[in-house]
């Protein structure tokens, strides 16, 4: 194992964990310890701040979409895709 100067700590978030927490972060729903770990990851990771900015840009471009604005057919397609994506990970 090569030491790159960043010793991984037990409480350090992985990029996957970071991505899974982004929605809660954007909704200000993280508890304080998790928020601290999230913020620390933002400082240490070169890629995740880019991902977070992309999520902000998507939200800004799409605006707020309410469930009643989505047709029943589109809703079922989206739910089906999310379910298959969730089971694939």
If you had to describe this structure to a student in words, what would you say it looks like?
The protein has one domain (15-88). Helix content is 64%, strand content 0%. It has helices at residues 15-26, 32-44, 48-62, 72-88. Helix 1 (15-26) packs parallel to helix 3 (48-62). Mean pLDDT is 83; it is low at 1-7.
Give a short summary of the structure:
This protein has one domain (15-88). Helix content is 64%, strand content 0%.
Secondary structure blueprint with pairings:
Elements: H1 15-26, H2 32-44, H3 48-62, H4 72-88
Helix pairs in contact: 1-3
* Oligomer state of the chains in this structure: single chain
The tally of structural domains comes to 1
Strand content is under 5%
How would the global form be characterised?
elongated
In N-to-C order, the SSE pattern is HHHH
Helix count equals 4
Q: Overall mean pLDDT score?
A: 83
Radius of gyration, in angstroms, nearest whole number: 17 Å
Low-confidence stretches: 1-7
Report the structural category: mainly alpha
Largest sheet: none
N- to C-terminal distance: 27 Å
Helix content: 55-70%
> Would you report the number of β strands?
0
Structure keywords:
89 residues; mainly alpha
